[in-house]
Write a sequence for this structure.
């Protein structure tokens, strides 16, 4: 049981490049989330999904897109990266009936 | 909207010292309250939680009590160890929602 995994662990992009971050969970959780973590700001919700095929905007969705084509995977895309998107990105998942979120190890993204 | 305020750090302590991290919240109804911990280079892990007023969450020697009257969920540990060095996040989930709201995080360093 791997829990929540994230790919890649580190990435450096140039301004304007695109990339996709992959989150996978093997706990059969319905809900999945993408957060970004910036110094002094805690974690802020980017997008979330309450089930396969559904997505919704969180607190800071601009510049990001997401897809949930399979229940176990939640993808976060940056179409045209900007230096303001330099951050650590965390994925999390949760059962429908529970209230505890389980987090992945994070992806550290630097945009030059 | 819902929000969490926790004491700013960083906090530096000696081993076996007493640790308190203050957390207060603003929310309607009766949210679930959490403390998450992030060890260096890792993702967030649930440390403890409480789901109703006067509940006490506890784990690894840490405790926090859900105080509805003061809208607080302060984290305490009686005798810290070097291995407790981490960033601690207070968070809440409203009863009618499935999103987590985080505090800014408190960095704790324990010196031998």
């Amino acid at each position: 049981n791997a829990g929540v995994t994230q790919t890649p662990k580190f990435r450096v992009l140039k301004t304007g490049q695109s990339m996709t971050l992959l989150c996978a969970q093997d706990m059969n959780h319905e809900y999945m989330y993408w957060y970004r973590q910036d110094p002094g700001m805690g974690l802020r919700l980017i997008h979330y999904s309450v089930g396969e095929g559904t997505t919704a905007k969180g607190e800071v969705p601009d510049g990001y897109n997401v897809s949930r084509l399979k229940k176990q995977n939640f993808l976060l895309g940056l179409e045209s990266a900007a230096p303001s998107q330099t951050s650590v990105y965390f994925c999390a998942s949760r059962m429908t009936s529970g209230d505890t979120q389980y987090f992945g190890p994070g992806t550290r993204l630097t945009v030059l | 909207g819902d929000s969490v305020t926790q004491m700013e750090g960083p906090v530096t302590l000696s081993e076996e010292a007493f640790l308190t991290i203050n957390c207060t919240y603003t929310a309607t109804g009766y949210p679930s309250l959490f403390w998450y911990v992030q060890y260096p280079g890792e993702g967030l892990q649930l440390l403890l939680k409480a789901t109703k007023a006067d509940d006490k969450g506890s784990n690894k020697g840490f405790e926090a009590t859900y105080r509805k009257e003061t809208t607080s969920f302060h984290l305490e540990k009686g005798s810290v160890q070097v291995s407790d060095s981490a960033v601690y996040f207070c968070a809440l989930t409203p009863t009618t929602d499935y999103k987590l709201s985080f505090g800014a995080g408190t960095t704790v360093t324990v010196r031998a």
About this structure: The CA atoms of residues 57 and 86 of chain B lie 19 Å apart.
